[in-house]
């Protein structure tokens, strides 16, 4: 077989997982964890010792990073928990449409118009609209994890 008999179209994904395993006993407050299938930021961790032959257990309290709900899980500390791959990306805000979609400028100069204003955080959405209407130059931080993405922070970069 020669090399020119094989083609590669680059259309599929690389098979990268949405999560990776990490031992529950090593996960700390402020880290990310998957609880009940949702990506969460760990708000509290407590470890309880059990009986003579049992495992120590980690009690996790997490806040869903997309909808703000509080979730809890108990996992033996020696077992693995799923940890989401969380990516933060900054975009410059160029536009907000009447139906709540944002026009975002990427670092490479491309436009992106598929993200809506945050739905679980009305305060952030209102501040974003007000600052944009006031003519401020804004950079939004978008969190992506497990196939979801959402605006979760804004920064004013207007010259002072």
UniProtKB/TrEMBL annotation:
Quote any Pfam family the record assigns.
IF5A-like_N
Family (UniProt): Belongs to the eIF-5A family.
Q: How is it modified after translation?
A: eIF-5A seems to be the only eukaryotic protein to have a hypusine residue which is a post-translational modification of a lysine by the addition of a butylamino group.
UniProt xrefs under InterPro entries: IF5A-like, IF5A-like_N, IF5A_C, NA-bd_OB-fold, Rib_uL2_dom2, Trans_elong_IF5A_hypusine_site, Translation_prot_SH3-like_sf
The record ties this protein, via NCBIfam families, to: eIF_5A
Translation initiation factor 5A C-terminal domain ranges (all copies): 85-155
Question: Which SMART domains does the record associate with it?
Answer: eIF-5a
Q: What is this protein called?
A: Eukaryotic translation initiation factor 5A
- What GO molecular function annotation could you give as one example from this UniProt entry? translation elongation factor activity
Might you name a Gene Ontology BP term for this protein? Answer: positive regulation of translational elongation
Record key words, sorted:
Hypusine, Initiation factor, Protein biosynthesis
* Described purpose of this protein according to its UniProt entry: Translation factor that promotes translation elongation and termination, particularly upon ribosome stalling at specific amino acid sequence contexts. Binds between the exit (E) and peptidyl (P) site of the ribosome and promotes rescue of stalled ribosome: specifically required for efficient translation of polyproline-containing peptides as well as other motifs that stall the ribosome. Acts as ribosome quality control (RQC) cofactor by joining the RQC complex to facilitate peptidyl transfer during CAT tailing step.
């Amino acid at each position: 077989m020669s090399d020119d008999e094989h083609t590669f179209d680059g259309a599929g994904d690389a098979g990268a997982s949405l999560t990776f395993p990490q031992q529950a006993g090593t996960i700390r407050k402020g880290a990310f964890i998957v609880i009940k299938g949702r990506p969460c930021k760990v708000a509290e961790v407590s470890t309880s010792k059990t009986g003579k032959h049992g495992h120590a257990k980690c009690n996790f309290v997490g806040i869903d990073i997309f909808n703000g709900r509080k979730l809890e899980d108990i996992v033996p500390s020696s077992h693995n928990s799923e940890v989401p791959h969380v990516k933060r990306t900054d975009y410059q805000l160029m536009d907000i449409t009447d139906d709540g979609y944002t026009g975002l400028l990427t670092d490479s100069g491309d436009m992106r118009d598929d993200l809506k204003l945050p739905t679980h955080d009305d305060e952030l959405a209102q501040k974003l609209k007000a600052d944009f209407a006031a003519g401020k130059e804004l950079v939004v931080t978008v969190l992506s994890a497990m196939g979801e993405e959402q605006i979760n922070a804004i920064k004013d970069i207007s010259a002072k």
